[in-house]
Structure formats: C-alpha cells, structure tokens
Amino acid sequence: MSKMENNTYTDKELAIFNGVIDLIKRGANIYLVTVSEIAKASGVGKGTIYEYFRTKEEVISKAILYNMKREVEHAIERVEQKNNFKDRYYEALEIIVENFDNKFSTINLLLSTGNFNELYEYMIDEKHLIAAYTSRIESIIDRLLLMGYEEGIITIEESQYYKRMVIISSIAGFINYINNRERYLDIDTQKAMDLCYKMVIKALK
Amino acid sequence: MSKMENNTYTDKELAIFNGVIDLIKRGANIYLVTVSEIAKASGVGKGTIYEYFRTKEEVISKAILYNMKREVEHAIERVEQKNNFKDRYYEALEIIVENFDNKFSTINLLLSTGNFNELYEYMIDEKHLIAAYTSRIESIIDRLLLMGYEEGIITIEESQYYKRMVIISSIAGFINYINNRERYLDIDTQKAMDLCYKMVIKALK
Amino acid sequence: MSKMENNTYTDKELAIFNGVIDLIKRGANIYLVTVSEIAKASGVGKGTIYEYFRTKEEVISKAILYNMKREVEHAIERVEQKNNFKDRYYEALEIIVENFDNKFSTINLLLSTGNFNELYEYMIDEKHLIAAYTSRIESIIDRLLLMGYEEGIITIEESQYYKRMVIISSIAGFINYINNRERYLDIDTQKAMDLCYKMVIKALK
Amino acid sequence: MSKMENNTYTDKELAIFNGVIDLIKRGANIYLVTVSEIAKASGVGKGTIYEYFRTKEEVISKAILYNMKREVEHAIERVEQKNNFKDRYYEALEIIVENFDNKFSTINLLLSTGNFNELYEYMIDEKHLIAAYTSRIESIIDRLLLMGYEEGIITIEESQYYKRMVIISSIAGFINYINNRERYLDIDTQKAMDLCYKMVIKALK
DNA sequence: TATGAATGAGTTTTCATTCAT
DNA sequence: AATGAATGAAAACTCATTCAT
Fold first, then answer.
1. Domains observed in chain D
2. Which one of A60, B111, C20, D122 is at 20 to 30 Å from B186 when CA atoms are compared?
3. Nearest-CA residue to the C1' of F18?
C-alpha cells in the first residue's frame, strides 16, 4: 500500500480522482454520488477505492481539492502569459466562459459566495489548502493591479482592499452573467466582457 | 386548528417547513438531512410528514422555496422603506450582513453563481418560481437605479444591463467580503459598505 | 356502541362489510387491502371501523364470512326452486357462471381446493361457521341425489360418498372450464354444462 | 462458487428461492412474508436479496414460478414412468397426496379454480410460463387418455374436451377429498382413489 | 494488489391503530 | 357516535464498507 510520496499520487489514485471529477462535471451531486458510481467512472473495483482512501468522504474531498489545484494552476499560467492589464483581465473572463458548463468550477467555488463552506466537513481539515489557493489568487490580482497602475489605467488613490474588491466584484458580476445568459439575450459574451471592463476602468480611475 | 394560515399551507406544513429551515440554518446539509431529523426539528411524527408530502425531496424543496419567498419579500419590504438611493443601497447590504450566519441565505442563492441550480432536481419543476423572484429583484434594482438617476447620482449614459451589472457586482463583492471577513481584519463592515458604495458611484457617474 | 343483537348487524357494520366485499370484487387482494381503502369504499371514517371491529383482520374475515353466508343462502334458495334433478343441477352451474367475475366467489372457496384454508388466521376461530355452510351444501347435494334417484336417473349402487363426489367433481370441473374459458374457444358455456351433466349421468348410472 | 448451477440461476438466487419456498411450505402467506424472513430462511443477508432481485414482489413471484416448474417436471417424470392407464392415473393421485401438506402445491394452483390469478401482479408478466405448464399438463392428460383407449378402458365416442374434463374433474374431486379428509373418516385414501378411478371408468366407458 | 459479492446499519416509507375533537 | 389527523412500529430498500479470493 505505497500510499503516496509527498504530494504526488499513484496511478490508481489519479484514476479515482478523475472518475469523481468526471461524474461531477457530468452533473452528479457530490453529496449523492455513490461509491459504486465512482468505481465505475474510475474503472477500478469498489474495493480498490478503499485501498487508497479511508472513506467515501475522503475520496470526494481529495478529488475536489486535486481538481481545484489543477484548475487554479492552469488558470494562473494562462493569465500570466498575457503582458498587459487589459489582456490579462479578459483572459480571466475567458477562462470563466470556458468553465461554464462545469458546475463544479473552482472559480465559482473560490471567488464567489462562500457556498464552498458548505462542502464536505472533511475539507475543513484541508482548509489551509483552500486558503493557499485563495491567497495565490489574491497575489495574481495584486500583480494585475500593479500592471494597470504601471500602464496608467489605474490612477485612483484608494486602499488595496478597494482595488481588489473592484476586480473581484466585476468577475463575480461576470459569473452572474454567464450563469444567467439565457436571460440576457441582447447581450453577447463579448459585450458582457466589455462592460465588465468598463466598470473596472471607471471604478479604478 | 385553523386549517390554512394564509391561502397556501396548513399549520402542519408550516411546522415542517420551519423544522427544515431551522435545521439548515443550524448547519445541516440539505442533501444529508434525514426525515427523522426533520420530524424531530418540526415537532411532528415521522409519519405526519408523509401525510403532507410525498417524498423527502418534496419536503425539503418546498421548504426551501417557502423560505426563499419569505426572505425575498421581507428584503424587498425593508429596502422599499428607504426613500433615497444611498439609504436603499445600504439597506440591501445591511440585510446581507444580517443573513450572514444563514448559510442558506436566499440572497446567496439568487444573486450569485447559480450554484442554486445544483439543488434538488425537484426544484426544476418550480423553476418558474425562482425566475419570478429573480425578476422581482431585477425590478427592485431598476427602481433603485431610477432613484439614483433622479437624485443626480447616476449620470452615465449606458445600457440598463450595465447599470444593473454594477449593482449586482457590487453586492456580490460585498457578499465575498462578508464570507471572508476573517481575512480582512483591517476592514470593518462599515468600511466595506462604504467602499462598495464608492465603486457603484464611480461606475455609474 | 350497540354492538349487535344475536347475528344481526348494525347499519355501520353492514356498510363496512359491503365496502370490503366491493373492494375484493373489484380485484383487491384481501391481504394487501388497507384500512383506509376499506373506510373510503364503505363511506365511513377510519376511526369508525375501529368502533365496530377490533382489528383489520377481524373486519375482513367477518366481511368474507358475511358474504359467504349471503351467497350460500342465495344459491340454495335458487337451486331449491327447481323441481327436478336436471334443472337443479343446471341451476347450480348457472350460479357459477354468474359469479365468475367475482374472484371471491364462495363457491370457489367452499367447493374446490381448500385454498380457503390460506385465508386469514382469524377465520380459524370461525371455522364452525364454514363447516356449517359446508354441511348445508352437502345436504343440498344429498337432496339433489335423492331427487335423481326418485326420477330414475341415478341407479348406481354405491356409497353416498361416491355419489356426492361425482357431483362435487363435476362442479369443480365446470369451475375449471369457467376459469379457463379463453382456452376452450370451441366449447361454449351451454356445451360445457351439457358435458358436465353427461359425465354425472354416466357416473351415477 | 460456480456462478450458474443450471443455465438459469446463480447459487445465491437458488438459495433465496429455496428460502421462500421453505417459508411458504411451512405455512407463511406469500402476501405477508417479509424480506427479513426470506433473508433469514435463505441464510443470506437482506442486502443480498436486493443484489439479485429488484423488489420483494419479484423475489416471491420468481420463487413460485421456479417451484412450479420443478414440481410440474417432477410430477410428469413420475407419471410417465408408469406404463398403463390405471397405474398412471393412480400415480397422479399419489403425487397429490404427497403434496398435501404443501399448501403451495402447484397442482392446486394449476388444476383448479384459478385462484392462481390472484397471485402477485408481477406474475402477469410471466403468464406465458404458466400457460406453458398448463398445456404440458394437458398433453400428459392426452397421452393418458390415449393409453386408456389403446388398453380398451376408454370406449366412449366423445370430444377430447369431454375426456379431459373427466380426468380433470376427478382429480379436482380427489383434491377436495384430500383437503377435507377430516370430514370423511369412513373413507381412507385408498378408497377415495378407487372411487375416483371408478367414476373415470364409468364416465369414459 | 485488486476485486466485487455479501452484508447490516441506517434510511425512507407505509399503515394499523389511537384519540382529541 | 363518528371522525380523520397524528403517530411510531415495522416494513422495504440502499449503500458504505468489508473481506475472501
């Protein structure tokens, strides 16, 4: 039972994580999904799951955290490839669009309303991880803001909290658009992005 | 036993709804709560629940919708008692603060990320109700904006979508603050509200 | 609670019996029928049933016995109106035809395979009643046989048991026809009766 | 654990069937028996039953059909070992005697009054099976009759329906004797058989 | 090491019976 | 006397977890 080395995972563990993530992306409810379903989706036996994890709760929680880590890292990598304020901001919105069909998007979980707190109790044990992602995102936002300042887009004299809040609010507003697109037939995605950006500019000027 | 309290539910149904809402407000997970727990929290026998509802799913879904209706109506009533743009906006934030401990806050559900869609399948049948609340909130926002316009606070020439988005984004940003208060020790609630308002003013000027 | 006088029943008791009989004739299974269904079918409240009977088992058992008594008496009355062997025998078959749609026919219960024994345990207490009906039927058969003897139709020198057995067997055979009519498309009811009668005559000659 | 015993059922399914059959033979009512009782009688866990069958109804219905198949096949085999009309007929009566304590005898179900129709709804799906047994029995009767004809015991010129009816009626009459033995103290089983046979001979002469 | 058949604890659901009105 | 709302004991059924293979 060679559990894992540091923070890498065995093939079986990864298969199981991917099974869970798959199920959830296909609409399964993390509270109602069964171990049998996970086993089938992962292509492993039910017993095997218990070779690698102690309980169902642990499987699901760790799978979610694994996915979160991956998504956040991927998002950061993409955002950092953009070299100016506007491109970087739009890239963030772009990522949100791409993740829309994924009800289980980490962005949703991290940025918005704290519904995340409702997740498995178990995760409380892993709260430091979530906090780590949250502060990584914060530093990304800080660098974005610095870029905007250096480019002369941001000129306002206000606390860092205010500036971060503007970015976070605008992104939350954009997520709200994405989640309710069917109600805004006259606003296409490009338009919605442009208006988010406009708000940011005005609020930070 | 006066059969109907209002024109909709019997006393027993209301007792059961309140039992469910109580449980959830005390931290129960809507997917993991049991009928026995609901019965105990409602002060009725387990069998009684099945006299009034066909399944556990129906009980919980209807309780949530009932609560949503009540909360939305209460919030609207409070907001409408304020007669100027600023007071009305702050009143909305105030309501959010008061609802914070309520993991199950309708504001969270309605305004933000659409995690609401993940709720019990059953609710799909009641989607029109949720849509109705959403558009009531929208018209409240529209009236708020009109007020701001009449008071000369809002002067921007932009689409209604933009203006609504500013309000919604700022509220979502405020919810984010509330949900992460422990991370913003240097910002008290009053300050957070003021900064939200500042963003709104700047974005709508 | 004026229970009953001797062997007459109150209106309520009769209403309940008729409710039960109705349900069963409409295809309900006596083991699966619920007290609520009986109450609805009887047009009385569920509580009322427990004013007149101690348990569900008692209600159903007594209703069945009541029906049995009525059916047997009615059958005997009809049979005795016929004044010769052949008419009397045919009248018995006629009654069976008329009762066919009634899965719950007493004739089935009494004459045939003893499936009756499977009925409610409770009935064991009332076994004397069933025995009484059985021996009334036996004496009807005896009088029928006497008639046939006097008419010169029956001439065989054999035990009374044999003669009764011939009658009972032929009726059981006819019931088998009735219950499987769809398998005997070339045999109409009249023909089946005639062949039963033929067998009886030959066996008793 | 050799998966399939014959080409139809797993070992576990057979264990469950035998548990059900056992219970019924020991006097349990097929409508009132519980899954817990079946589990205990089968020597398997309650959950195991639901691994192999979808509902309690399915378990019981399939167990009954399984038993019916076995009993019919066994009876036919025994009957066919006899090489003349009389022995074959008596062998059939013998089988009935042996099955008497079995309230759940297939012979009762198939030959007689059609009470069988009252069994679980589920069986309607399997009606073709029951029809198949019924017609197998019919062809056994036909071969018996042919034997009697060839031996010169049967000489009557009548329809096949009549001849079959005589056999079926006599067997039904014998079942009636068996089920009411306590009322016929002066007739022992041998005597009852002989009289049945006598009736058959006379009716088919 | 990997498995899935087996299981029973714990869930949802039913319904005979009670009892306040 | 008549009722049906309320109930909990007992039923059907589910599924996380175990363990023999």
1. 1-53 (1.10.10.60), 65-204 (1.10.357)
2. B111
3. A47
The predicted-structure confidence for D94-150, as pLDDT tens digits, reads as follows 998 887 766 555 665 555 444 444 556 666 667 777 778 888 889 999 999 999 999
Q: Round and report the angstrom distance from CA (B50) to C1' (F6).
A: 11
> Is residue A126 within 8 Å of A61, Cβ to Cβ?
yes
Q: Radius of gyration of chain C from Cα atoms? A: 19
Q: Confirm if A10 and A52 have CB atoms less than 8 A apart.
A: yes
Which bases of chain F come closer than 7 Å to a protein CB? 1-20
Q: Which of D31, D172, D180 sits opposite C173 (nearest CB)?
A: D172
Backbone angles phi, psi at D4, to 5 degrees: -105, 130
**Cβ-based neighbours of D70, under 8 Å, separated by 6 or more:** none
Place of tokens 């409409």: C26
Residues B97 and B91: their CA atoms lie apart, in Å, by 10
Q: What share of chain B is helix, strand, coil (3-state, %, to 5)?
A: 70, 0, 25
- Measured between alpha carbons, how far is D118 from D116 in angstroms, rounded to an integer? 5
In chain D, which residues have their Cβ closer than 8 Å to the Cβ of C198? Answer: 158, 162
- In tens, the pLDDT along A136-162 reads 889 999 999 999 999 999 999 999 999
Which residues have C-beta within 8 Å of that of residue C173, sequence separation ≥ 6? C196, C199, D165, D166, D168, D169, D172
Question: Which of A111, A113, A180, A185 is most worth mutating to test chain B (most B CB atoms within 10 A of its CB)?
Answer: A113
Contact A110, A71 (CB under 8 A): no
Q: Which residues of A touch B (CB under 8 A)?
A: 29, 31-32, 103, 108, 111-115, 117-118, 134, 158-159, 161-162, 165-166, 168-170, 172-173, 175-177, 179-180, 183-184, 186-187, 192, 195-196, 198-199, 202-203, 205
**Cα–Cα distance between B55 and B174 in angstroms, integer?**
37
Rounded CA-CA distance B183/B77 in Å is 32
Residues paired with residue D10 on neighbouring β-strands, in sequence order: D4
Measured between alpha carbons, how far is D192 from D177 in angstroms, rounded to an integer? 7
Contact C113 D172 (CB under 8 A): yes
- What is the end-to-end Cα distance of chain B in Å, rounded? 56
Quick count: other Cβ atoms within 10 Å of Cβ C189?
Answer: 17
pLDDT of residue D1: 37
What CA–CA distance (Å, rounded) separates A166 from B172?
11
CA-based nearest distance D170→chain C, Å: 6
Encode pLDDT of B158-184 as tens digits: 999 999 999 999 998 998 898 788 888
Q: Which nt sits closest to D52, CA to C1'?
A: E5
Q: Are C97 and C189 in contact (CB under 8 A)?
A: yes
For residue D69, CA distances in Å to B79, D98, D111, D132, D142 come to 75, 17, 14, 10, 20
Q: Which nucleotide is nearest to B56 (CA to C1')?
A: E12
The H or E element containing residue A116 is none
Q: Give the predicted TM-score (pTM) of the model.
A: 0.88
Measured distance CA(A166)–CA(A64) in Å, rounded: 28
CB-CB under 8 Å, D115 with C199:
no
Contact B33, B70 (CB under 8 A): no
Please name which of D166, D160, D173, D174 lies closest in space to residue D201, comparing C-alpha atoms: D166
Distance, Å, D67 CA → F18 C1' = 34
Q: Which residue is nearest to nucleotide E20 (CA to C1')?
A: B1
